[in-house]
Amino acid sequence: MSNRYVVRYGVMRTLGVFTNSRGETLARGNRVIARTERGLEVGEVLMEADDQVVERMTDPRRGQVLRVMTPDDERESKRLLEQQQREFEICKKHILALNMPMEMVDVEQMFGGERVVVYYLSENRVDFRDLVKVLANEFQTRIEMRQIGVRDEAKLLADYGDCGKPVCCNTHLSEMPPVSMKMAKLQKATLDPTKISGRCGRLKCCLRYEYDTYDELQRDMPPIGADVLTREGKVRILAQEILAGQLLVETEDRRRVLINAGDVLSVVPGTRRPPEDREERRPPREERDERRPREDNKREDNNRDDGRREEGRRNEGAREARESSEPPAAEAPPNEPPREADAPPDLPPPNPA
Question: For residue 328, how many C-alpha atoms fall within 13 Å in the half-sphere facing its CB?
Answer without folding.
Answer: 4
